[in-house]
Amino acid sequence: KLGVPGEHLEKVAYRCLEPERILNRKIVVVGGGDSAIESAILLAQGNKVTLSYRSEKFSRLKPKNESSIQNAIKTKLL
């Protein structure tokens, strides 16, 4: 948890279950690991997703996720 106002609200989730059922939302995904990247890309299909990460570069991603996030950024999916 980040210690920010509103993090206790029902609309805040700490796991991405059934992302295909989430549509037409503004979503912030916090983190830069493989799980965050995979969730952000899945959720970007039909939603406006912002990825919040504390570093300028991703440093610990699997090669497939690194490629996917770079492509999503280049095509403005995220």
Topology:
Layout (H helix, E strand, L loop, with lengths): L25 E5 L3 H10 L4 E5 L10 H12 L4
Parallel strand pairs: 1-2
Helix pairs in contact: 1-2
Overall mean pLDDT stands at 91
Biggest sheet layout: 2 strands, parallel
- Strand tally: 2
| Straight-line distance between termini | 23 Å
In what range is the share of β-strand residues? 5-15%
Helix content percent band: 25-40%
Count of helical stretches = 2
Rg of Cα set = 13 Å
Q: Tell me, briefly, the overall form.
A: globular
- List the uncertain runs: none
SSE succession? EHEH
Please provide a written account of the structure.
It contains two helices and two strands; from the N terminus they run E-H-E-H. Helix content is 28%, strand content 13%. The model has no long low-confidence stretch (mean pLDDT 91). Helix 1 links the parallel strand 1 (26-30) and strand 2 (48-52). It has helices at 34-43, 63-74, and strands at 26-30, 48-52. Helix 1 packs parallel to helix 2. Strands 1-2 form a two-stranded parallel ribbon. It has 78 residues and is an alpha+beta fold. It starts with 25 loop residues before the first strand and ends with a helix.
Describe this structure in a few short sentences.
The protein is of the alpha+beta class. It has two helices and two strands, in the order βαβα. The chain is globular, with a radius of gyration of 13 Å.
